[in-house]
Amino acid sequence: MIAIVAVPKSFCETPKKPSSDHRPRKKRHRIGSSGIVPYKRRARKPIDHAKEGRIMTANKTGRITGTEMEEAISRFERDCRSDGVGETVRSFIREPLFIWMDALAQASDESVSHSEGEFHAECGLDRNMIMRTTVGINRMLSIRDVFLISAIVDERYADRDFLMSFAERPKLSRNAQRLEQLLSDSFRDPLARPDMKRCNQAINMLFDIIDMIPKTYRAQPFAVISYIMWWMGQEGAMASAISALAIDDQCSLAAIVCSAVERRIGPAWTSET
């Protein structure tokens, strides 16, 4: 689990059984005494504002149904039992993660000029890739976390081989230590400004994923959006976190973002602006 207050820790462990972070709850969430209420009742405008003008990044051919998601999850879990978790994660996630990272790299390449609204289809997530990504980030926190890390940490420091290794083996000592160091360095360094184009592209893609999937699977994508926005110093972080908590009131990543925003805690670079 991610820790963003003070020193960012290695934040992912793959639970033996699905945790509350993997099982969306219907119970509505209210945080502390601050009176924060679910997205449906308060935060619609901030989220709509966050989505306004964003570029389509997915090749949409119809929304993914709940039945399709259940079948994909069953297949993923069956493969984990028969082939092992590591092999299943690699075969299931490698392609969508690399397409995702190609899109992030394309967005951050300042030498490439794109007209407004233009996006190269070869870097878009198609329906199958969206479904596989959604299964992964909902069933294993390590998968969710590599998608998050790939957005906020430059690929020179968190390359694809490392991210895949972490997704497969998050408890491996060298993986956990390296991730903790990456986050700690980025969090503490006032000169470590995030790549805004890269982060915005990740947010674009996550919003498109959210638009394609059933509501019960949207908490984790919203939580990742909230964390990226918090890392960028954007006001939409709280609204996105509340959106996640409105779906799953036990989504700890979203709750942590809410706490950090309320306490005015952020990466060191935000205090220098």
Can you walk me through this structure?
The protein is an all-alpha fold and about 270 residues long. The protein has one domain. The chain is about 60% helix and about 0% strand. α4 crosses α9 and α10 runs parallel beside α12. The N terminus is likely disordered. This is DUF4192 domain-containing protein.
Low-confidence stretches: 3-46, 111-122
Strand content: under 5%
Radius of gyration, in Å, reads 17 Å
The SSE string, one letter per element, is: HHHHHHHHHHHH
Region (Disordered): 13-33
Organism: Bifidobacterium pseudocatenulatum
Protein name: DUF4192 domain-containing protein
Features:
12 helices; 273 residues; 58% helix; globular; mainly alpha; DUF4192 domain-containing protein
Quick gist of this model?
The protein is mainly α. 58% of the residues lie in helices and 0% in strands.
In terms of topology, how is this protein built?
Elements: H1 39-42, H2 44-51, H3 66-83, H4 85-108, H5 127-139, H6 141-152, H7 160-168, H8 173-188, H9 196-212, H10 219-232, H11 236-247, H12 252-262
